[in-house]
Amino acid sequence: SPKTAVVAATLTAEPFEAELVPGKKTVVWAYNRNIPGPLIEAFEGDTVEIRFVNKLAQASTIHWHGMPVPADQDGNPQDAVPPGGERLYRFTLPAGSAGTYWYHPHPHGDTPEQVYRGLAGLFIVRAKDDVLRHLAEQHLVISDLRLDSDVSIPDNDRNDWMNGREGQFALVNGQREPVITVGAVQRWRIWNACSARYLRLAVPSRKIILVGSDGGLLERAQIVDELLLAPGERAEWIVAGPEGDASLMALAYDRSKMGKVAPERDMKLASIKFTQDSVAKLPERLRTLPPKIKPVAKKRVVFSEIMSMEGGQHGMQFLVNGKGYDMKRVDLTSRVGETELWEIVNDSHMDHPFHIHGTQFEILDTTLKGKTISAPWRAHKDTFNLKPYQSARILITQKHRGLRMFHCHILEHEGLGMMGQVLVK
Ligand code: C2O
Ligand code: CU
Ligand code: CU
């Protein structure tokens, strides 16, 4: 049997002064004084031991977004580490868990602030028999930054709470419009680590070769013109010549924000320099996903929002099945290892990305204005977007017992209550 290892690291969350603007100091909160936090890499079968040291003035947790870790190791809001405290997260990565993940705080109420001040990091799980393992990799984590004129990071305002926070800049690996060099064929992993910014990614005049989603490789490569990555989603691309210059763009995307907002515009994320002609030669089949299992139970999750007078400071309430998040309430129950059919409904007039903890799911189809469309390809996902009044049917199997959160991954909406809990028995 293949060798496994223990992957150990310490992640310290702390405020520190970073030079985001040359010659000026900005106080950010980050893991190990890095934005993004350190990349953690492990193989399927490995055991991961992360010591978390909380040097923030707020309680915090580390949540392993998308990864099949036991519920008591997943940084639930109920398991917050107090300021000055620490704990050990320990989990073993099962076969089939290879994918492109990330980690970020998940304390009750303070998740948006902790993420927009800089706390988030990358996690890659590899399969030893990955058919693309010979390719050089490029990692692009796209995050959002807002700075005041004094280069400090401002608090959320009313519009941020309503629409989710976007910054002036979308940064690629912490940099503004970096130049990415592509020589031989590369494998890109791309993270949308923004709190609320949608990324309609395109490389104008070139095609995208999509080979992976949140939870690892697709069965077959898909050639697309553009790819929407909602907050929290990830993708893998194969990037190859011809030689020449190109741009990685986030094209304008209308997610039906509320109130008076500036019109959406195309935004350049990075320049790409292809230094040679290269051609991607990919195996016909990248992976074989396990066969679809017939569901034994059904669940329905409805996202909605209402204007509220007493909703207090923010004027909006964001709800799941008619209720705001309560960390003491169990909203749904499931059984470990049983496949369920969940219908996710966006009963509101703005886009919301659905996300659930602890496992990957498969989208069967989506319905908009009475028209149902089957998923164009099979994929393992943990986050996907729902347009206004769109619904989706997903197949989901939880792998561990315990309490799991599901929520909108616009972090302000999650923070304001668009989150529920499923108890897996
Ligand atoms: Cu990426 Cu509940 O989170
Ligand atoms: Cu998550
Ligand atoms: Cu939302």
From TrEMBL:
GO molecular function: copper ion binding; oxidoreductase activity
InterPro entries noted in UniProt: Cu-oxidase-like_N, Cu-oxidase_C, Cu-oxidase_fam, Cu_oxidase_Cu_BS, Cupredoxin
Domain Plastocyanin-like: 22-129, 314-425
Key words of the record: Metal-binding, Oxidoreductase, Signal
PROSITE patterns, alphabetized: MULTICOPPER_OXIDASE2
CDD domains registered for this protein in UniProt: CuRO_1_McoC_like (cd13855), CuRO_2_McoC_like (cd13881)
Any one annotated GO CC term: cell outer membrane
Subcellular location, record wording: Cell outer membrane
Membrane topology note: Lipid-anchor
Protein name: Multicopper oxidase family protein
